[in-house]
Fold this sequence. Notes:
- It is a single chain.
- The radius of gyration is 36 Å and the shape is elongated.
- A 6-stranded mixed β-sheet has the order 4-3-5-6-7-8. The protein has a two-stranded antiparallel ribbon with strand order 1-2.
- The chain has helices at residues 17-23, 34-42, 46-56, 58-64, 68-96, 102-107, 110-118, 130-143, 161-185, 197-220, 232-242, 249-271, 282-297, 299-302, 323-355, 361-377, 387-395, 402-418, 427-436, 439-442, 447-454, 456-472, 474-494, 539-546, 551-569, 625-640, 652-660, 677-687, and strands at 126-127, 384-385, 499-503, 510-512, 525-529, 612-616, 644-648, 673-674.
- The chain has 710 residues and is mainly alpha-helical.
- Strand 3 and strand 4 (510-512) form a beta hairpin.
- Helix 8 crosses helix 9 (161-185) and helix 12 (249-271) packs parallel to helix 19 (427-436).
Amino acid sequence: xxxxxxxxxxxxxxxxxxxxxxxxxxxxxxxxxxxxxxxxxxxxxxxxxxxxxxxxxxxxxxxxxxxxxxxxxxxxxxxxxxxxxxxxxxxxxxxxxxxxxxxxxxxxxxxxxxxxxxxxxxxxxxxxxxxxxxxxxxxxxxxxxxxxxxxxxxxxxxxxxxxxxxxxxxxxxxxxxxxxxxxxxxxxxxxxxxxxxxxxxxxxxxxxxxxxxxxxxxxxxxxxxxxxxxxxxxxxxxxxxxxxxxxxxxxxxxxxxxxxxxxxxxxxxxxxxxxxxxxxxxxxxxxxxxxxxxxxxxxxxxxxxxxxxxxxxxxxxxxxxxxxxxxxxxxxxxxxxxxxxxxxxxxxxxxxxxxxxxxxxxxxxxxxxxxxxxxxxxxxxxxxxxxxxxxxxxxxxxxxxxxxxxxxxxxxxxxxxxxxxxxxxxxxxxxxxxxxxxxxxxxxxxxxxxxxxxxxxxxxxxxxxxxxxxxxxxxxxxxxxxxxxxxxxxxxxxxxxxxxxxxxxxxxxxxxxxxxxxxxxxxxxxxxxxxxxxxxxxxxxxxxxxxxxxxxxxxxxxxxxxxxxxxxxxxxxxxxxxxxxxxxxxxxxxxxxxxxxxxxxxxxxxxxxxxxxxxxxxxxxxxxxxxxxxxxxxxxxxxxxxxxxxxxxxxxxxxxxxxxxxxxxxxxxxxxxxxxxxxxxxxxxxxxxxxxxxxxxxxxxxxxxxxxxx
Length: 710
């Protein structure tokens, strides 16, 4: 049984904008000046000072409400679980950055120390992220290539190749932090909105492909130099296939076994996560087993397997970044900063919604900026978050960043005391762990079919970003993706789906006439809905879509015909001139001219079955000066053709702009504007009542043929 629907009845006058303004007095509001905004921003009192402290140090807010008995145990368990994953991922992702594995542990420790105080998210795990590691590694490979001399940088003098790579990575990370901190201070956290979910998905998928290819040399045990630049992925694959016969079988078998086991256990973790108190730390378990087997059977000497080797024990003294590296890597550091923040913010947003608390985009920029600057000073590389690591921290009971701090402490213990135990670990094991963790990003290829079926422009953004990042590199690929995304926005606004509306009988509702069977559409009335802003790029598109004819051409033909008719009634000089683009002058004729009536044979004027045109501006959010001029010209052409034009549901700010720009004159009047579509329709129906006797047939005055001359 259908649910009972409520009804409402409203009895009121039919309003135009003018009559509505006359009956309902409007409050005059004085907008704030720029000086008022500055004065308000700089004004300080105790309340604002407290809010500023809580904003800059979010730890003060959540630490005051920390529930020790309820949350502490969960944070400790979560911190230990996350720490095991962070250690393994730090070692593995350092290979992507072309750095010794021990520096991945630095990234798992230092950035977390400052984010603990400054970050607004309580659940993300701060540390290395494979996409950022790869982007940093591209700069490292370019400035310190494996098979050639390093770049001509003064800071490289007296350093070993590994030290040069660490200097490049830390300098790029320092500059990345400066960019993030500057954007946070300038309150431009909104910049992340330009990276849509579709663009980020395509970009991270392309990054996963790059990561997969970069790890093949470790899994296969091949000596392949790092390649940077456009088409680098193709050149890398070429070098791998050239050397494929030199594959180290021990590395390959060990990698396959580890990938299969880790994949199966991860799937079981996902399937039974509701029953497991904490996920099984399979990466840590396999790493320990691989270390023991490699050490016991002496894989390095017996099977020529590359191992992690000497681990840095303890922490080295801070270093200053290289200004020369800044100059060489500024172009790459900015997209690294944007991508790092975008990924971290999107992950933080998911968990903030799930656990019902707010995060501040600008404060997150400040937190990551300071964290990367601080970490880079101690030789760590770019930090953000990884979805898999954050999922472990949240699902294992983590409630606050105390879990993150404990995970950082675990990385510190490995660095200070236990690092030597990881020295016999084969690098192929780290490569296998990186590859098996790419599953989530590689599965995003399934989105292509989904997007193609539901939103083809979004599919174009995904494919364009992915292909651009795969073929041109991640930095240029991100620029390509942004370009394609902006083009789709331009395409949607420049060529929107316009519609002609009709009334649903018995209601004040108007819908697309193509979508409904029973509609009311008065003869001679057209309701045209404009579904987007009107600006310089689409004003001509709207003018062409308004009606199925050229109003200026019809007006000129009418005036030519009228000039010929007047010559027969008034004996004037044959060289009389009239402006053909001006309104038709019907003075002096002994009848009312009806251009749709039967005309003499040789007077050919296009028939226009339109007396009222209603423009629905309810979806028009802004109107620029170029569009204003084009709209004014279009309205004048219709008015001069004796077509009444009405504009309905116009935004009050657009209406004010029309007044300020002198839009109205003796032809375009404010009385054309109506607050609702139904008001305009009722006005039209009341104005244009059928009166068949109001006009005479022009052929009664011209029983003979008339030759129309220019």
